[in-house]
Design a protein that fits this description.
Elements: H1 9-20, E1 26-27, H2 28-35, H3 44-60, E2 64-73, E3 76-85, H4 104-110
Antiparallel strand pairs: 1-3, 2-3
Length: 118
């Protein structure tokens, strides 16, 4: 795909963040916390969805790579997508080393759960 595809402002900001460190992939949660968590009035879940959609724009344009991760912790299912720039030499998440292989990545994914009280 062409790299001249017009992207949303958020997708451009995500690409800048990804290119800032090509040696480490960014999960949707980290992108959200870095780029959108301050000053937005929408809910966290809707902002995570917007963040993932913008990051997926980059993947569709061939400017980023993505791999999904899924884990179950204490009976709750958590999914995430990790993104890194297409110019990175890594083709798969596991290429980033042991901390991005199972089970290490699954333990870190489970840490995304936040307790909101009972």
């Amino acid at each position: 795909m062409s790299s001249t595809v017009s992207l949303s402002d958020l997708a451009n900001r995500i690409e800048e963040a990804l290119n800032g460190n090509v040696s480490r992939p960014w999960c949707v949660h980290r992108l959200y916390e870095t780029l959108l968590s301050q000053g937005e009035s929408r809910t966290r879940d809707s902002l995570l969805e917007i963040t993932q959609h913008a990051a997926d724009e980059l993947v569709a344009a061939g400017r980023a790579r993505r791999e999904y991760v899924s884990a179950i912790a204490i009976g709750v299912h958590c999914e995430d997508a990790l993104y890194w720039p297409a110019r990175s030499p890594e083709l798969r998440l596991s290429d980033f080393g042991p901390e991005f292989e199972s089970p290490a990545i699954l333990h870190r994914l489970a840490s995304h759960f936040q307790c909101h009280g009972l």
